[in-house]
Amino acid sequence: MKYLKNEEDARDCVQQIFLKVINELQKYKVEYFKSWIYMIAKNHCLMKLRDKSKTVELGEHAVSEPGAETDKKNYIEKDELLQRMEMALNKLNEEQKRCVKLFYLQKKSYADIAEITGFSVMQVKSHLQNGKRNLKLLLENPS
After folding, report:
1. How far is 51 from 90, CA to CA, in rounded Å?
2. Cα atoms in the Cβ-side hemisphere of radius 13 Å centred on 52
3. Is 96 exposed, middle or buried (0-12, 13-18, 19+ CB in 10 A)?
4. Predicted model pTM
5. pLDDT tens figures, 91-137
6. How far apart are CA 128 and CA 36, in angstroms?
7. Among 8, 12, 49, 123, which residue is least crowded by beta carbons within 10 Å?
8. Which of 79, 112, 115, 119 is nearest to 95 (CA)?
9. Residues 48, 10: contact at Cβ < 8 Å?
10. Burial of 102 (0-12, 13-18, 19+ CB in 10 A)
């Protein structure tokens, strides 16, 4: 309830979290179960909120009339921004690029990225922070 503010969403998340805990518990040696389950729940809720906010953004654009002139301009601007973002992403170093793609495009958690890449969770966090900052700089100052 703290994150989602909706009782039905919270109930759904509790069920999903318990399923995830049952599946994930076999993969890891958990020393501090209470902290571990808290982080699983927190990450799940944050991912749910992130997905929800993207759905709302997409929903707002889906309502607009496709033939309107301002909509065409918006679509063109977004397309250009996406192209610039893709070019900027390719300019990042490999570690940052890989972490950013896994986190933002494939919606992986820090722990999942650490497992996939072999980096520590702190390295993943660092690569994401640096990659995000570098992307912002590259988008603001294209050269």
Report:
1. 24
2. 12
3. buried
4. 0.49
5. 999 999 999 989 988 889 999 999 999 999 999 999 999 999 998 88
6. 22
7. 8
8. 119
9. no
10. buried
